[in-house]
From TrEMBL, chains A, B, C:
It comes from Planktothricoides raciborskii FACHB-1370. Keywords: Antiport, Calcium, Calcium transport, Ion transport, Membrane, Transmembrane, Transmembrane helix, Transport. The chain crosses the membrane at residues 30-49, 61-82, 94-112, 133-150, 162-180, 209-225, 237-257, 278-303, 309-329, 341-360. This is Ca(2+)/H(+) antiporter. It is found in: Endomembrane system. Belongs to the Ca(2+):cation antiporter (CaCA) (TC 2.A.19) family. The gene is cax.
Amino acid sequence: MSTKNLIFIVLLLFVPVSIAAHFLEWGSVTVFITACLAIIPLAAWMGTATEEIAVLVGPTIGGLLNATFGNATELIIALVALNAGLVEVVKASLTGSIIGNLLLVMGLSMFLGGLRFKEQTFQPVVARSNASAMNLAVIAILLPTAVNYTSQGIEESTMQTLSGWVAVVLILVYGLTLLFSMKTHAYLCDVGEAENESSSEGHSEKPNGLLWTVVLLVCTLLVAIESELLVDSLEEATASLGLTALFTGVILVPIIGNAAEHATAVTVAMKNKMDLSVSVAVGSSLQIALFVAPVLVLAGLILGQPMDLNFNPFELVAVAVAVLIANSVSSDGRSDWLEGTLLLAAYTVLGLAFFFHPVMEAMG
Amino acid sequence: MSTKNLIFIVLLLFVPVSIAAHFLEWGSVTVFITACLAIIPLAAWMGTATEEIAVLVGPTIGGLLNATFGNATELIIALVALNAGLVEVVKASLTGSIIGNLLLVMGLSMFLGGLRFKEQTFQPVVARSNASAMNLAVIAILLPTAVNYTSQGIEESTMQTLSGWVAVVLILVYGLTLLFSMKTHAYLCDVGEAENESSSEGHSEKPNGLLWTVVLLVCTLLVAIESELLVDSLEEATASLGLTALFTGVILVPIIGNAAEHATAVTVAMKNKMDLSVSVAVGSSLQIALFVAPVLVLAGLILGQPMDLNFNPFELVAVAVAVLIANSVSSDGRSDWLEGTLLLAAYTVLGLAFFFHPVMEAMG
Amino acid sequence: MSTKNLIFIVLLLFVPVSIAAHFLEWGSVTVFITACLAIIPLAAWMGTATEEIAVLVGPTIGGLLNATFGNATELIIALVALNAGLVEVVKASLTGSIIGNLLLVMGLSMFLGGLRFKEQTFQPVVARSNASAMNLAVIAILLPTAVNYTSQGIEESTMQTLSGWVAVVLILVYGLTLLFSMKTHAYLCDVGEAENESSSEGHSEKPNGLLWTVVLLVCTLLVAIESELLVDSLEEATASLGLTALFTGVILVPIIGNAAEHATAVTVAMKNKMDLSVSVAVGSSLQIALFVAPVLVLAGLILGQPMDLNFNPFELVAVAVAVLIANSVSSDGRSDWLEGTLLLAAYTVLGLAFFFHPVMEAMG
């Protein structure tokens, strides 16, 4: 058994612990931390199960499955938080996921990979094409904020309508990028042994479809339960830890939700498979911006918890800055440890800025 | 006769119709729409006539002619609107022209071209050089807005003076880019059979100078008349259609003024001449920013309708965003249908944002 | 003796003149101008002395010496101004140095070099790597401003703490870039005969360590004295010349402090050594952002003149714009006179904007 799986099994103990902490009222900080830890292995196994099933059902449906469930953990946490009315935390976790994938995940990959290999290379065409899609996504989800910020205020219902239409455009674009990368230009986007690599130990035999479907369902259910615990305890726990809702949403929640991607991207970078590593980090950001965010906007309308795309302006600055520096570092198709350091430093500085950002009364 | 010319001749019927609509008081909406339609063929023929005369007078004077009259339609509409005091509409149409050329025209070209050809290429050196000039232009016309927005207000006369000096710098830079592309580095900027292509059917015989001069004069006169009708009816018509002056200026007016460039850029893209297509779209934006905008600032001083470069901040955001994504898509010298889609999606999202942007009292 | 040295010796006469002007009370304008002129040769000789000593002590310590004392003149002027409480002038001179190096120095180099050579090339890898570091630096020093601007105000003490932490991150990154360029990836960053070129006439014999150490100490002392005169007279002199403190800090002070780099970068560009020229301009900006600015923040805490990283938002715009266009021009590893013109035009437009920017009450 690999070290990774051993760690995951230990972390799995936090599932019963967190539930006990909730019912025995061990305090919101305990519930929050144990729920966070419990989600990490569940998210990882959901990812593995999705990929195993994807192998079984063939490239097209498998690709769609990966594209839809790839960020399932984040989507579940966000839906639970949205349903509980924590709209600002949900928005913050979206920007935080984008920032975290582009700076923390890609930065760690380039840094640790760069310590082993003097120079690493990856396909610049894919990096640039992704950069353009990322630019569009960021522009789209942040324009409503700009509309509000550059006018004498916009009515809430108008903001909802605008956000809804923007969400529709983004989902359409997401569908077209899938069509592009899986059908018309698949050769461009082939980054090699993705499934083999990110699943734990490779598989010469055919995966067991029933087994993995059960794993997927059980993990999804447990993630949903742990998300309830996490969301319930979030406000009280973070307040008693002296953290703002903004910082929690932007920095803490995404690290938990993306732990699996972090592990995969860093592992493959250290095996010098930078194409796959960059693709995981940027692909995950793209999925958040082009799929998770618009789905949440539309879900908000259904749940009666209207979520618009009117972000805190500093989140706008942070995402713009993250995309800018990630593009600048990745556009030439090569990386070294200094480029990784620059991304990590940018993440640190953004983290400091969010930590000290005064809480707005609108938050939380 | 080509389909394009047939359409143009039919549209020409709107010249008398719009004049009738004005004098017989058929309502401002009718006048506005018919004037819009009438301008499209006139603009196209002005373009053709300019190019035919340019062939006749030789490369240097011809190049200057193209560089000066290339956006004549937009310039005439803007001058008429400026004279009528619609300063905010004029500014909006400038930003709208830049956005429209970079996103709508280039996006449609890459999308439709990309449906026919899996991958299209163009000279990245020219694309990058143009991108740098475009960056400068955008920076220059938007800095006065930033000065106003980041201070506790700037006096109107100071803003005028600043805008005037910036205009002078831009016109100088425009002159130098012409010198660069026509004299010192002409080999870099040669995009092939531009005149032949964009004029309708090619010409083995020498063009008839007198004929085309008459066409140019008549079309210019008619464009000026139709612009008067368009500007007179604009405010009432758009209000009764439920559109803001901002949306009209940014989205509607530029589509009419740039219809000819649209047709040319898309046509040549579908013949896989992407160098020319990108050059038309980016070149037209550059001309707006480096020549038309500063000329209008200086004309405003003469007309007693002072026009400064203090834009609505959302226009600033929109232009910055358009330039960013256009650079990101075009800097690698290759395009496919997805890149076209990204540009069109960006245009759509910007259009939605302008549509829902609350009217500022300063507008119209 | 070279023309350059002759000019410097003439300028040296302004050392006694400026001191006389101060004690004989010839007026603050006279003191200010003569002190400015006196600093130019002193700064140049400090640079030469640093490089000669660097040759003597070997590449590693020499590299560190260059990296630390490379912007010594600016650091001294800034420390004196900071000690006198002119915090806003210090901040303005930091942004002005970055802008000046990226636009004025690099622009003049590309323009004058481009007049001699049709096309000049330099290593794009280094240019891009520097661009990424520059992006990080700009992001880091400007995020505190963004925090303040996007909240309902941040307490001064929180801003201090945030700025202090950001300064620590930047100094760490600076150390790592030195490690990268001098140790682990030195081959990437080798731009050739830098020392030989930028020192005046080359040296076949071993430099005289004692002589140059004396020159360094005397020049440092004199720069410090002249900086006192410059800072003392600055406010009164610029006010009577009709200039704002912002304009003085952003445009005038950096031109004086960077005069030596200007001369070096332009001289080597005209010898077609663009790698070195770009490296001097960008390297100097990087040093300001990653080393001088954070050192001043930490020095402010010691001097009891708290200097945070909360800039005038227009400075933020200006630096972002300068980095954008400098990256856009330099990222392809080639330059011509038009690219130089674009940078100079951007500098001119920014200069105009700063000239007309209304003084905020917080300034000076």
